[in-house]
Write a structure and sequence with these properties.
This protein is α+β, with helices and mostly antiparallel strands. Helices cover 29% and strands 27% of the residues. β17 and β18 form a beta hairpin. The chain is globular and about 80 Å long. The protein starts with a helix and ends in an 11-residue tail after the last helix. Bound molecules: FE2/S2 (inorganic) cluster and fe (ii) ion. Fe (ii) ion binds next to loops.
Length: 391
């Protein structure tokens, strides 16, 4: 995010605080309950968003050095991500080309070679088959036809992107667009240092986790003893970048900052930018680093999901605080708040929706990020937009 945009957002927040207003979606919208509960809808989402859509699977520092790897299984295809000996990011189906066993079962680590636990076929971190026991029993097989199946991958501005469909594409310009690309580039995410990961499994639709980050209307109630102490509730700025968005939350520190000269202003000091990367990523910018949240359905169910949370710090932070302390302390408060407050409320909403007693959820004029996300979601699934109206 460039300086000019930082100042524009901060001035927008100050103006809204002074006038006791908020961003205005121009009306309210009602989202049908089936958005969250319908099995058929879920199957459609799974195909469009999770099997065949580019996905952010982490940040560059999840693969900090040559030989680093990690495995995930959030898209129905087991995935092995590596940084090979030339430093290149690669992504493969973590499936042995001999008899389809899962090749690597560790969650992360550093390896040059991956040996399948079934019969010992071995692959390089560039995905090539480099050996197999008792080769005379196979004769001269063409090793080049037996590498790990490669998936589309791209490392860009510190983000690791893949397409779970091996015939799919990742067009970064189509995905993010120039303005958002530049906004993300200015943060220098490639310098971040990965600290730790966490995950919360919840009995709710994956989009309810996303919705909870889309407004601050709830701060003075749900977070009255936590976040509300440091944030003004119900004041935010909202940017749209095609299907993606940016919600800028307002910190109480803005009250001190606004009386200082503009050169002292800093978006991180007075606000908290939250990027929505369509369809399932929330990326939060903080003073110490960033928090990346990836929301996934689990058990092929519209009623169960997991929030995968990764914490990263800016390089300077390590000069002040040791890695051991950071691993213990970073994100503890944040994790507790979303687990014990946001996701509890969201899981209750899911129960309420499942009761069948309410047919629609209503998004107010003060929740434009939710308007944008849900209209975009519908457009991406080929559904009609929802009418926004003034009651
Ligand atoms: S299935 Fe992997 S070596 Fe046989
Ligand atoms: Fe919240």
């Amino acid at each position: 995010m460039n300086r000019k945009e930082q100042i524009r957002l901060l001035k927008g927040l100050i103006e809204k605080l002074d006038n006791k207003t908020n961003v205005d979606a121009g009306g309210i919208m009602k989202v049908p309950a089936e958005t969250y509960t319908c099995e058929k809808r879920f199957n459609n989402e799974w195909e469009v968003f999770f099997r065949n859509h580019p996905q952010v699977i982490g940040m560059s520092s999840d693969l900090p050095e040559k030989g680093s790897f990690f495995t995930i299984n959030d898209f129905g295809v087991p995935i092995l991500a590596t940084r090979d000996s030339s430093g290149r990011f690669n992504v493969f189906a973590n499936v042995c080309s001999h008899r389809a066993a899962i090749v690597e079962s560790e969650r992360k680590g550093n390896k040059e070679k991956f040996s399948c636990p079934f019969h010992g076929w071995t692959y390089s971190n560039e995905g090539n088959l480099i050996g197999y026991p008792k080769p005379d029993h196979f004769g001269e097989i063409d090793k080049s036809c037996y590498g790990l199946s490669s998936l589309p991958s791209l490392e860009k501005n510190g983000l690791l992107l893949i397409n779970p469909n091996k015939d799919g594409k990742i067009d970064i310009n189509e995905l993010l667009g120039e303005e958002l690309n530049n906004s993300l580039k200015n943060w220098n995410f490639s310098q971040l240092i990965h600290i730790k990961d966490d995950e919360f499994h919840t009995n709710m639709n994956w989009k309810l986790a996303i919705d909870t980050f889309g407004e601050t209307y709830h701060f003075s109630v749900l977070h009255k003893n936590t976040l509300f102490e440091n944030f003004h509730g119900n004041v935010q700025m909202q940017n749209s970048y095609g299907r993606n968005g940016l919600l800028t939350l307002c910190k109480r520190e803005i009250d001190n900052m606004k009386s200082e000269p503009e050169e002292n202003w800093n978006i991180i000091r007075g606000a908290m930018p939250v990027y929505y990367l369509f369809p399932n990523i929330i990326l939060i910018i903080l003073d110490f680093g960033i928090i990346l949240l990836r929301e996934y359905p689990t058990e092929m169910s519209p009623h169960k999901s997991v929030s995968k949370i990764s914490y990263y710090v800016w390089p300077g932070v390590l000069d002040e605080i040791s890695l051991e302390i950071l691993k213990e302390e970073v994100g503890v408060g944040f994790g507790e708040i979303i687990r014990d407050e946001d996701y509890v409320a969201a899981a209750d909403s899911h129960k309420g929706l499942m009761s069948g007693t309410i047919k629609e959820l209503t998004f107010g004029r003060n929740e434009p990020m939710l308007h944008h996300y849900h209209q975009t979601y519908r457009e991406a699934l080929g559904l009609e937009p929802i009418e926004v109206f003034k009651p």
